[in-house]
Amino acid sequence: xxxxxxxxxxxxxxxxxxxxxxxxxxxxxxxxxxxxxxxxxxxxxxxxxxxxxxxxxxxxxxxxxxxxxxxxxxxxxxxxxxxxxxxxxxxxxxxxxxxxxxxxxxxxxxxxxxxxxxxxxxxxxxxxxxxxxxxxxxxxxxxxxxxxxxxxxxxxxxxxxxxxxxxxxxxxxxxxxxxxxxxxxxxxxxxxxxxxxxxxxxxxxxxxxxxxxxxxxxxxxxxxxxxxxxxxxxxxxxxxxxxxxxxxxxxxxxxxxxxxxxxxxxxxxxxxxxxxxxxxxxxxxxxxxxxxxxxxxxxxxxxxxxxxxxxxxxxxxxxxxxxxxxxxxxxxxxxxxxxxxxxxxxxxxxxxxxxxxxxxxxxxxxxxxxxx
Length: 372
Description:
The structure is a single chain. The protein has helices spanning about 5, 10-30; strands at about 40-45, 45-55, 75-80, 85-90, 100-105, 110-115, 125-130, 135-145, 155-165, 180, 185-190, 215-220, 225-230, 235-240, 250-255, 270-275, 280-285, 290-300, 305-310, 315-320, 325-330, 340-345, 350-355, 365-370. By secondary structure, the chain is mostly beta strands. It has 3 domains: about 35-165, Jelly Rolls, CATH 2.60.120; about 175-300, Sandwich (Jelly Rolls), CATH 2.60.120; about 305-370. The chain is elongated. The chain starts with a helix and ends with a strand.
């Protein structure tokens, strides 16, 4: 029997409807086995990489917006903690922009959020870390970022690493246990390995970190102060605050990379303090980086030196002072009347200044003042 004979009893509209229904049924049949929360794939082990897909997946009614994004193509896994400790889960290696959410609960419309993430570092994949309790069942959702293009689907690579407790964390992991620093000039060596981020903790330097430790310093003098992590073994973030609790902190200054183009990924910040003022310093790791910390707190004094008359008669000298601050340079012929020479931005603590007017003068005095 020919295809024409088989189709002849149907009108064109009926045939179109039948084909659409067949297509919809085929798409439904192609959904991943773990498309629904109730069909979450079980993960066993403590160091696991699983491969999956969210192509053809959908979102259920009442399902959370993972990492705060509507998504629309989620798939589910479940893992039960074999002991108490810490877990790190990532979608690194997936070939699309992922969303990641981890929950506890038994129904998709009444889950309790444990951790979530959209992008981490410079990647569009996702990563979370959190403490777990033995015997607790955790549900892991991987969704695709909804940018309106329908591109949030593809191959999923899910990595789970479990660290058995008890876990030794830095003594100054939490804000309430800040390490006290004393003196006008201070250098301390510490570490942020296995440090954690607290609830309501600010994003230091407005960048995602996950391994912060805390210090506190009460200024013994009124001065410009420079805080830096130069010499630390990882890509640091730096936050400087006033306040008494984690929830009422006010940012004074912050720093990320000192020279990203030059590969200097440690941090520095310069700011003014009053004698007796308490400041709180957070050192975090970019995207969860960790290692040895070298933290320096030092009062910055402004000096002019390295004076030299050039062959063309111009006068050159060096300003040493607070990094990342503007300075007004003024000159005088009699130490009474002062006039402007230039305004400079002191990028890294030292800047060379040339005064072209000095070529016509026998005597010239200079002074530098930090711009408030």
